[in-house]
Amino acid sequence: MRGANVEQSALDFTGINLDDPLRSQVALSEAEALGEIFRPIRKSIKAHDCTRAILVGHNAAFDQGFLNAAVNRCGIKRNPFHPFSSFDTASLAGLVYGQTVLARACRAAGIEFDNKAAHSARYDTERTAELFCAMVNRYKDLGGWQLAQREQEMDGTE
């Protein structure tokens, strides 16, 4: 992660040690990691005849900034994610559940949340995905997709 601007307070909070000698033995390089992450995303984009993927994140603009910076550092020519569009579960959960904090939003959605496991990338990502799906499914159950479809039919943009 040479050239990355990493706040010491974030490292202290998460317990990550960038200088841990084990990191170089087991961790992928940033470019390799992005390649591993992007491979299934690109495959899905192609399978669904899309041009870009949309990032879903809790405070997505924050994640998108890190992702875009990493893509630039690694010289990746085509980021599979749209450069600025995203679904932000913090904003959506504020609207749907009146809660913007991930733990509180998950609990409001009926999703278990373990504060001890929180703030690991994997745990928070999994809870964010569950939260996003809960909100999308709730919208669908309330007839949201039918409303959008009716509006498209009225506009002739089906």
UniProtKB/TrEMBL annotation:
The record marks 13, 62, 84 as: Important for substrate binding and specificity. It is an enzyme of class 3 (hydrolase). GO terms for molecular function: 3'-5' exonuclease activity; nucleic acid binding; RNA exonuclease activity, producing 5'-phosphomonoesters. One of its GO terms (biological process) is tRNA processing. Belongs to the RNase T family. Trims short 3' overhangs of a variety of RNA species, leaving a one or two nucleotide 3' overhang. Responsible for the end-turnover of tRNA: specifically removes the terminal AMP residue from uncharged tRNA (tRNA-C-C-A). Also appears to be involved in tRNA biosynthesis. This is Ribonuclease T. It comes from Vreelandella sulfidaeris. The gene is rnt.
